[in-house]
Amino acid sequence: MAAHTTAGRCDPPGATPAGWTRARARAGLTGALAALTALALLIVTGAVQARPTAEEIERLGKDLTPLGAERAGNKDGSIPAWEGGITKPPAGYDASKGLTDPFAADKPLYTVNAGNADQYKDKLTPGQLALLKRYPGYTLAVYPTRRSAAFPESIYAAVKAEAGKIETANDGNSVVGVVGSTVPFPVPKSGVEAIWNHAFRYRGGTLVRNTTEFPVQANGSFTPVRRYEETIFGNGLKDVPNVLFYFRTNYLAPSSIAGEALLAHDFIDQVKQPRAAWVYNPGTRRVLRAPHVAYDTPRTGTDGLSTVDDYDAFNGSPDRFEWKLLGKRELIVSYNNSRLTDKKLKYSDIIQAATMNQQLVRYELHRVWVVEATLRPGKSHVYGKRVYYLDEDSWQIVHGDLYDGRGELWRVLEVHGAQFYDGPAYFIAGTAQYDLQARRYVSSGLTNEEKPIRFNVPMKVADFSADALRRSSN
């Protein structure tokens, strides 16, 4: 059954194991044993999510997009229909200059600021409202909505071929049945399924990028943290099972951390194989296992403003939180930020005191899935609750509101995405994570003064071993 939509909100249907009620109702020893067997299986695997129906799967590529979004626009036309996105670069595209903005002629429809925020509050997150109230320079220039997200046809085919054959297990902490899909749950029935879609989303078979991060002081000063990273995703591996991704990053600057390096292996079944990580220390010239590189460990180079699992908006095992799918909303979110990749821009043009230069950020009205993560009893994390907003067209997290253990809004994450023509993939052009308590922020993923991002670069699994980490750091 399709999800029911009212007043801009989509409530997911409930889910119970197929046949469970009938099994309980059967009389006799055979029925009782069947029920007990089913219950034992659920306890062991945690596989309590209903699979999509044949009718829902058939909708993919029709009234739903190939990745499960609503193809149609909204009622008042402020969100248009998805017509395939951008699959080819605009004329004159030169990767060495950054992304050519396909919507450069667009003008803002309106601008949201502290003075008129109440007028748009039903289209804003609590984090955005907090930033509008606190920082006069934080404004949202809202442009016409352009549903530009697009991916290879082979990805669309794999998603539909595997839809309904994939499920979660171990209370959502494992994914079972994935072969080549990059959206295992195009019709999600739970919050953890939606967050797995973000983790699996297509970013090419491999990804190479030089990025710069900026932990910004209250007065606007910053020291750039430059990194080189390589990633090979599970869909880029043909004969290596259970791999979500292999990731390696080498720190290039500042001098205090230059030469350090990190290697991480993430797996599809997080219970069977938890994350494996190694770090290289240039002082000792040794590679050591690093089990601490996960969850809420402060991320290197961010001055304590971001956790390891904040990277890429969210990464790693979901096991410390209970994930609830709250449905869909129409929200003003950062989108189509090709301009933020312009190589003519200097980092000093973008990074300012209090907030990023909001004159360079584009916002649009989009439908997003809303997922609430609440810390499980007995588990530890600096965040007591996280609320994520996932773009329906790409499954990219586009915004996050992060709460401390007291339930107070602590950090606000904005993901400035864009359609990258060389993927093709909708991916991150930059991020800003604002710490409301420290009154500081960290910006990540900017590439303006770096080499262009490259997708589908030939790589080998051997490049992601501890020995390779040591070699890459010398």
Range of helix content: 10-25%
List segments where confidence is low: pLDDT < 50 over at least 5 consecutive residues.
1-48
Spell the H/E element sequence.
EEHHHEHEHEEHEEEEEEEHEEEEEEEH
Q: Alpha-carbon distance between the termini?
A: 57 Å
Structural class, by secondary structure, is alpha+beta
Describe the structure.
With 474 residues, this protein is an alpha+beta fold. The chain has a domain at 4-55. It is 15% helix and 29% strand. It is built from eight helices and 20 strands. It has helices spanning 20-25, 28-45, 54-59, 126-134, 153-162, 191-200, 347-350, 466-472, and strands at residues 4-6, 9-11, 110-112, 140-142, 167-169, 174-176, 206-216, 225-233, 243-253, 261-267, 276-281, 286-289, 321-334, 363-375, 385-391, 397-403, 409-420, 425-435, 440-446, 454-455. The strands form four sheets. Strands 7, 8, 9, 10, 11, 12, 13, 14, 15, 16, 17, 18, 19 and 20 form a 14-stranded antiparallel sheet that branches. The protein has a two-stranded antiparallel ribbon with strand order 1-2. Strands 3-4 form a two-stranded antiparallel sheet. It is globular and about 60 Å long. It starts with a strand and ends with a helix. The relative contact order is 0.16.
